[in-house]
Design brief:
ABC transporter, ATP-binding protein, binds adenosine-5'-triphosphate, ATP hydrolysis activity, Rossmann fold, alpha/beta, nucleotide-binding, single chain, four-stranded antiparallel β-sheet, 28% helix, AAA+_ATPase, globular, five-stranded parallel β-sheet
């Protein structure tokens, strides 16, 4: 799987967030986009996910030389980000079942096994709105790691995680990303030091 950004530029009102960005992201590699607050990392990630449009340029998605149309790319990727909402009125079990209708769990994991991996087994019948922020973050990451998609996009992956949660994140990265395309947005070196390539978005101003 490959994501190719060609001459990508994004402007909000009169402000150019980035300009003429040319990048190639290939599996099975891992990439991190770094830059200070407000530099455009999340904006770029949303464009790479096909959920936001660039002002100029384009994003191409390729699988074994075949181009995948942007409207179908959601089938091939998982994304976990602070601005993506979970369905708060569902219990954990309801939410996982619902999610699996669209993106089945990889390796034929059972729902019970999956909830235990996220260390949320005891919260099976708890409503998501009663989850702590760290529990919600483990759930978002778990859904991204264990969907059988070729691409994983993570924005600020350890936000709200305690030290144990951060250790868990590193273990799950090790287990789940070796044969996939991983793109992270981060400002924290410990979140991305394992990545193959670090891209500084400020070089595209
Ligand atoms: N929908 C929008 N309308 C107008 N401006 C926006 C919009 N979304 C983002 N911006 C602006 O674009 C810039 C880049 O925002 P973005 O969230 O991509 O940065 P970031 O690097 O991810 O920041 P952070 O590290 O704080 O998460 C900011 O100045 C932000 O205010």
């Amino acid at each position: 799987m490959e994501i190719i950004a060609e001459n990508l530029s994004k402007k909000f009102q009169r402000d150019w967030i980035f300009r003429n960005l040319n990048l190639r992201f290939q599996s099975p590699h891992s990439y991190t986009v770094v830059g200070p607050n407000g530099s455009g990392k999340s904006t770029l990630l949303q464009i790479l996910a096909g959920v936001a449009a660039p002002t100029n340029g384009e994003v191409l998605f390729k699988q074994q030389q075949q181009t995948i149309a942007v409207e179908y790319i959601y089938r091939h990727l998982s994304i976990a980000a602070p601005y993506l909402e979970l369905i708060e009125e569902f219990t954990l079990l309801e939410l996982v079942k619902f999610h699996c209708k669209f993106k089945p769990l990889k390796n034929e994991l059972s729902l019970e096994e999956f909830m235990d991996i996220m260390k949320l087994g005891r919260a099976k019948h708890k409503m998501i709105k009663h989850f702590s922020s760290g529990m919600k973050q483990r759930l978002k990451l778990g859904l991204a790691f264990y969907a059988g998609t070729e691409i994983i996009l993570l924005d600020e992956p350890t936000s709200n995680l305690d030290n144990q949660g951060i250790d868990w994140y590193h273990q799950e990265i090790e287990k789940n990303t070796q044969d996939r395309l991983l793109i992270l947005c981060s400002n924290q070196a410990y979140e991305y030091e394992f990545c193959d390539e670090v891209i500084d978005i400020t070089s595209f101003k």
